[in-house]
């Protein structure tokens, strides 16, 4: 009761100092001569904690009591996400107004994640009450127990008195759906510009960008039908009566340079996106949504010239995290307004904690690279000695991490590239330069860390000293590569342990066109009498994009036909799906990257290892005959040989038969 009394008195004190504190966020941000200000400058380097630093303990009052974080209270078992709301952001308004966004948080937040909600504004009390009301309503008919993981503070960030405000301001926030995106309206006779928050249409739908120039604004009604030529003006259209796609397409036909959709009175800013078949028709102009501003509408109706420009004002960061090891973490790039991005980062925190636990298991560890720069034709190269008792182990795991030159994601390489690890232990051996592992780099995020089991390939380590080469395309920006080889003995009991003793190389990939399958011929499979088991082992990924999206975004199937009867098929079912790679975050896919990391791809995801595909084919073979068995490979698209009309993609493949005894 004493704590509750203190909290209530605090609420009363703060409320008397808050102006325009409403039950919900203010719908429009209007900067007047009194409130117009310059953006806060970023603190100089070294002014605050960085990602990876240990988060200090803290306490904050919340609507339900005191929230405490203290890493010294024993082993950390939960992660923490801190969200700082501001009514000045159109992105955050949509995030908090969208029913699907709110439901995603209450239905998908991992059990071992706590979320602390703060406000950057003077209206922190009403903001906290409104945020709690929104989430309690969203959870009413579903997962009410998640509410115990959600904490709402009425104390504004600038009054917290701890390190949180320092990190939020020091890390800053500027970029797509980050910072304060604004539309700036001017007209003759106005003393000050009218500046309103805006939310740009989805990046993966409309890839056109607002330029830095000033545009004329033209009223185009609801925008559902083409208007007389707009002559390069930005179309000012109301929401409703047709889809966002129809509005943008109609205005593009009217020679508009872009589209501003304004919400009807009382409605929030919405997430502008295409739907269904609309998404297959590219549109070349940008679009955004804003609130209707009376002065803009009146000026247009009276025939005055209104101009508009677009800007993004830097802001404090909206999201920071603390992982289950107690380390500060960036939350990445939110492609659109949804709390799903919080869930995905929280899932990755859980994956990371599980990985750290696995790395504590007994193993003989051979360091190969430790933060070695991987760039250019050479890549990262190291020669190491292997354990003298190599053949006593039956498990080989690759402990790989790719980090960035700096500690922030902003220092990370752009684009996603294939990374391959090759090994050569004897220049004269047929195993020299065998691909031992494959990964795909994350796009502008540096937290990738994976453990990949490549035990079947132990026989390629056929000398006590081996050279390892990790490389990607030579034009890629640098990565810092770390690699440890982990040798161990599996703890299987009650079964006869078989060990790989021979690796037979099969087929590689190539250009995925009409000639792709013509180069593959049946191969004989010699089987030694000591063989007890045979396994098919392949690492396959599709890249590039023809008119069908092949091989990155199309569903391809890869077939290994044994003895003309047994068709072993590996199909990339999730390729091209909207959220295919979000399903792999629990497996280690780095979430919240730049670009379209969410989409399913042909056998891979950004920021993830490529898992080997393994099939026991022993029963498909005549094990008593040395050379009576055959295998042949072919790859198909829609059940047929690929036959693209333009820009064929390619398949990268390493495939083997592994013989055990």
Helices, strands, pairings?
Blueprint: H1 2-15, E1 58-62, E2 65-69, E3 79-85, H2 90-97, H3 99-108, E4 113-119, H4 124-139, E5 150-156, H5 163-171, E6 180-186, E7 194-200, E8 215-219, E9 234-238, H6 244-253, E10 258-263, E11 287-291, H7 294-301, E12 307-313, E13 319-322, E14 328-330, H8 340-358, E15 364-374, E16 380-385, E17 395-403, E18 418-424, E19 434-440, E20 448-453, E21 465-471, E22 479-488, E23 500-511, E24 523-525, E25 533-543, E26 556-562, E27 566-571, E28 608-609, E29 613-616, E30 629-637, E31 650-660
Parallel strand pairs: 3-4, 4-5, 8-9, 9-10, 10-11
Antiparallel strand pairs: 1-2, 3-13, 6-7, 6-12, 7-11, 8-12, 13-14, 15-22, 16-21, 17-20, 17-22, 18-19, 18-21, 19-28, 23-31, 24-30, 25-29, 25-31, 26-27, 26-30
Helix pairs in contact: 3-4
What does this structure look like?
The radius of gyration is 29 Å and the shape is globular. The protein has 8 helices and 31 strands. The chain is an alpha+beta fold and 661 residues long. Helix content is 14%, strand content 31%. The strands form 7 sheets. The chain has a 7-stranded mixed beta barrel. Strands 5-4-3-13-14 form a 5-stranded mixed sheet, with helices on one face. A 5-stranded antiparallel sheet has the order 16-21-18-19-28, with no helix packed on it.
